[in-house]
Write a structure and sequence with these properties.
The complex is a heterodimer of chains A (294) and B (218).
Chain A: H1 2-26, E1 36-41, E2 47-55, H2 65-75, H3 78-86, H4 89-92, E3 98-99, E4 119-125, H5 126-130, H6 133-145, E5 148-154, H7 156-164, E6 170-173, H8 176-184, E7 188-204, H9 217-226, E8 231-233, H10 239-248, E9 261-263, H11 268-278, E10 281-285, H12 286-293
Parallel strand pairs in A: 4-5, 4-6, 8-9, 8-10
Antiparallel strand pairs in A: 1-7, 2-6, 2-7, 3-7, 7-10
Chain B: H1 6-40, H2 46-57, H3 61-72, H4 87-112, H5 114-123, H6 128-138, H7 140-156, H8 159-165, H9 175-185, H10 188-217
Classes of the chains: A alpha/beta (294), B mainly alpha (218).
Amino acid sequence: MKKLLAVLLALTMLFAFAACGGEKTQTNAPEAADGYTILLEKGEDMKNTYSLIACNPDKLVDINVEGANAFIEWMTSSEAAALIAEYGKQQYGQALFYLIDEAFSQEEYVAPTASDNKVIRISTTTSVNDSGLLPYLIPTFESKTGYTVEVQSAGTGAAIQKAKDGNADLILVHAKASEEEFVNEGYGVERIPFMYNYFVIVGPESDPAGIRDCANAAAAFAKIAESKSTFISRGDDSGTHKAELKIWGENVPNAENDTWYISAGQGMGACISMAKQMNGYCLTDKATFLSMAE
Amino acid sequence: MLMSMDKELLQIIGVTLRMSFFSTLISCLIGMPLGVLLGKSRFKGKGTIIKLTGTFMGLPPVVAGLIVYMLFSKNGIFGSLGLLFTVEVMVIAQCMLIIPVVINLTHSITSVNASPLLETAKGLNFSKGKTALLMLTENKTALFSVVLTAFGRSIAEVGAVSLVGGNIQWKTRVMTTAIMLETNKGNFSFALALGIILLLISLTVNVIASFAVKEDKR
């Protein structure tokens, strides 16, 4: 009993500590949590494009082709466009995703008659699902068409692999090279880039490497490497990890020898938490960071 | 594929063994004496304690990890120690999970033949410490499986160690978190291969352990 009480006591104290910490940050900028903030955004090398790809029924068995097409058609309709453009404004005071206009149809959306198979399986990345975008869009689609959408979210690598194994009808991911490979190998029908946002570099407000005024992410990374400031990498082949590697280019640090470069091999949320704990920098999609700063 | 990451794989196996060994050692050093104490003595509230250890045997690893994570976070009670994301803190989280198991199992093993042993000890006029030692040595084989259970639990655990260890490459990555990572990457077959290696390590440890017990019996 004493043990249980001790644990409970410890937990209560912790929550109390956490609550105190939370209150302090409310007086700071709304984006900041524990003096941790977005230091660099909208560098031209930080663009992050999301695509929809229907799985190819000629290569994979038991694909709900009608369902996948119905979903893609709706996602690129003017109705979805309005919803996506609005997303985030209410909660964070800014849009989290921007539209790629060419992808969107101007015509009035006509709901198709649902096929016999009413379940659509989407394999997507954590940034789209955990940021709340899909849970926000899907109910409208479902009520309009009578389909049921099952969302599986994982890193882009696993998301694509699940589709290759025949466990999805379409994918919604953000890693151009892997997407093109997916289509070229015959698994996907067509790559439809439809929205984008920007990666951001987050870090402690004190900004030990001085990256605030950098023109782009590559310059910021160079400063981080030069000052050997802690940097947390996803290290998990996800879309964000691939984007990070692209920014490093040839100068990618060696996790074995460069101890300031932490290859965490975990999801975005876990990496941001680690970065906060270690006072380090991290490349993240804005949506996930903002949803965690709450 | 396995060959290409030889050096890193060896390092991961090293961390895994180090973590599992110390988790098992510390858990047994703390848990076994407490278990024997519970096995040999009768007092009010004993039932509650046993039920409590039984309950904590079902403690989800992630919850244990979360508690340890919060304790060792920057704004946690032990935050100033700077132990978060180290092998040490992984061992602490593991101990939290394993100690209840060791206490509970040691208790149920030693309580079976407690009364005849206690009588013998009384007849021989043994001290309290010597009595406990007698109970431990008399149940050697059964207690050995407790050690192996503890080792098995610690080597197979993933939720707590990924949370408090951070799965950092070249530092706190262990076999289970490496498997998790490869699964997340979509390298399902490689993840499975790592799983087989983990089983082989476990098998090796078990074989060595059973030899040790046999040697001892002679």
